[in-house]
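Example record

The entry below shows one chain as it appears in the dataset: sequence first, then structure tokens.
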Amino acid sequence: MKENEIIQKLFELQDEKYRNFQSKLIPTINPESIIGVKTPELKTLAKDISKGDEILRNDFLSDVPHRYFEENQLQAFIISDEKDFDKCIDYLENFLPYIDNWATCDQLCPAIFKKNHSKLLPYINKWINSNYTYTIRFAIKLLMQHFLNEDFKPEYLEMVAKVESSEYYINMMRAWYFATSLAKQNESTITVIQEKRLDIWTHNKTIQKAIESFRITPEQKTYLRSLRVK
């Protein structure tokens, strides 16, 4: 399969109704860049590319920015399956600046990171201070996915609290992070909310998302409601 054959295959898998549906969910990108391919079919194609010609795979991963949303999704799936930590980081460093939507950002879930937390932290520190919206969002997502359990440290809360942005997709991820942290590390996290250390929008959105969570007790939800800022 050649690079132009990848795009040809994507159009063969096109679903116009799904394309119209997706374009409404991802308002930050041009609707014309969306072909309309469902995720299971993209994942299958990504595996075919990964198992195929190595030169083609590497050429595809290095050929950014891509034209189509689905190409970015393929890239996210292929990178997520990379078994070598250093290669995965190289691919990410090349790709992250070109991510232009929440869906591609959130599909990036490299499995190799689960066993490499100490090696990952310096990159999270770097990415969370980036000038790119979705690089910052990705860094916060990594802290939420990998550092709210046994490897949790209160200083990670401060890393996210210190992020200052007017970008909706950054602050929504910050709220998601703190809502999850309230469920997993309540004692450390509740102080951030009590002291109102977040901007008003993120503060209230965190409380809203936490109240919607089944992992937060009724008593905790009642208390969180009292901490809303008007």
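Notes for this example: The chain has a mean pLDDT of 95. The CA atoms of residues 10 and 37 lie 7 Å apart.
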